[in-house]
Write a structure and sequence with these properties.
- This protein is an alpha/beta fold and 274 residues long.
- It has one domain: Rossmann fold, CATH 3.40.50.
- The protein is built from ten helices and seven strands.
- Helix 6 links the parallel strand 6 and strand 7.
């Protein structure tokens, strides 16, 4: 398969004022894409876009709000043209024991991590299908395949996203619209502050950004970062439950224990209202 060129394509990246999204936006802009950053922090989105190339722009976007998303799409299309690539990056995470999780945190994770992805695809993919081309990339998580203690609801949201993408991919088969899920381990961002990496190394936002660029050049459905996480999880799944438990408890970090003394209050109050 020939490598696809991202140059000149209009790319939307949600939740990209900081962190992984900001790294993705920067990498795609450097590759020649026309980037539209959408973020609840409209000022942060504008600042991030001002640091990019090729006429990048930043806009207010609340992925949990239908009107906000439709207005965002209309404005991006008016300013930059039809959307060629959607990168679903916006996501939030609460960490701790399942019975200590505030209801507001549960609701926020489902609304942003699941509802935001579904809303973006439902609103943007039909126009891609009509044009016969497009690419939907979703930053899921290794938690789409695994479920670390302390991240039960977060893992549930990411499992849901992978299930949704699997169905949508089949519906879009043969239309010219590609669907990709990128599933990184723990990345050095505010979202993951105070958590443990388990058997994998701590990733940088640029590691995820580089993966997005590679997947856009050569589309594939599922990509874990690091790559060995996917095959390792698949092999573990073939073991009898007792052996599987032993293997996964060595591979997957216990985030209840890891975050016990971590101060995540600043992040969680801002991102989750908890």
């Amino acid at each position: 398969m020939a490598r696809r060129d991202i140059s000149g394509q209009v790319v939307v990246v949600t939740g990209a004022a900081t962190g992984i999204g900001r790294a993705i936006a920067g990498r795609l802009s450097d590759a020649g894409a026309i980037v539209a950053i959408g973020d609840r922090d409209a000022d942060g989105a504008a600042v991030a876009a001002s640091e990019l190339r090729h006429g990048a722009r930043g806009y207010a976007l609340d992925v949990t709000d239908e009107r906000s998303y439709t207005d965002f799409i209309a404005t991006v299309t008016e300013h930059l043209g039809p959307i060629d690539v959607l990168v679903n990056n916006a996501g939030v995470m609460w960490v701790g024991p399942f019975d200590a999780e505030p209801p507001t945190a549960t609701d926020a994770m489902l609304a942003v991590n699941v509802g935001g992805v579904i809303r973006g695809i439902r609103l943007i993919a039909p126009a891609m299908r009509e044009r016969g081309r497009g690419h939907i990339v979703t930053i899921a998580s290794a938690a789409s395949k695994l479920a670390p203690p302390g991240e039960s609801s977060y893992a549930a949201s990411k499992h849901a996203v992978l299930g949704y993408l699997t169905g949508v991919r089949e519906e879009l088969h043969g239309t010219g619209v590609d669907v990709s899920a990128i599933m990184p381990g723990v990345v050095d961002t505010a979202l993951a502050a105070g958590t443990d990496t388990g058997a994998a190394r701590l990733l940088r936002p640029d590691d995820v950004a580089d993966t997005v660029l590679r997947v856009l050049a050569r589309p594939r459905f599922q990509t874990t970062v690091p790559r060995y996480v996917g095959p390792a999880a698949a092999l573990a799944g073939l073991l009898p439950q007792r052996l599987r438990d032993v293997v996964l408890r060595r591979m997957v970090p216990d985030q209840v224990a890891a975050s016990k003394d971590a101060d995540r209050s600043s992040y969680e109050s801002g991102a989750l209202g908890s």
